[in-house]
Amino acid sequence: MKRIMIISVYLLICMTGIAQNARVETIFRKFKQMRHASYVVTPKHLLKSQFNESSRPQEIYMMNETDTVKELNLNQCSPRMRQDFVKATAHFEEDGYQVEVSEREGMDISQVLFYEKAGSITSILVLNIGKETCSLIQFLGKFSHRDLNYLIHDGY
């Protein structure tokens, strides 16, 4: 009985985590299959291999906290597809994401959003939309606000 309870709690936690990023996962799933789309998932062990002794300590720390990085690039896709992407990415705030930085320059929009759970940032989104650019990058892991500031001001 105890085992069933533990498994039930574990499943509930997993389902809750998936539901919180449902819109983001749907966007990745839908648009990565489009013609001329580029989609890359970089797991933790590959991220760690990119850094060496000459890397800055904050870069190493940030990557140690990162579990996965996903990048969806639609720069080469049709204008219609990019327009669909803009509509699909318009309401991350409804899913609990908070906008940390939002810059608009003419038609170009850049945003950094984060999702916080239990005092830790578990997901960071970097969204770039413009006439020539259309991309979404997601960092999954356990980050602090210091990591987020580093990513915004120094790292990205």
Folded structure, characterized:
The model is unreliable at 1-20 (pLDDT under 50). The protein is α+β, with helices and mostly antiparallel strands and 156 residues long. It is built from six helices and six strands. It is globular and about 40 Å long. 41% of the residues lie in helices and 33% in strands. It has a six-stranded antiparallel β-sheet, with helices on both faces.
Question: Helices and strands, in N-to-C order?
Answer: HHEHHEHEEEEH
- Measured distance between first and last alpha carbons: 49 Å
Which strands sit side by side, in order, in the main sheet? 1-2-6-5-4-3
The profile of the biggest β sheet is:
6 strands, antiparallel
Structural class: alpha+beta
Number of helices: 6
How many beta-strand elements? Answer: 6
Average pLDDT level:
78
Assembly classification: single chain
- Unreliably modeled segments: 1-20
Morphology: globular
Rg from alpha-carbon coordinates: 17 Å
Which percent range fits the helix content? 40-55%
Sheet-strand content, in percent, reads 25-35%
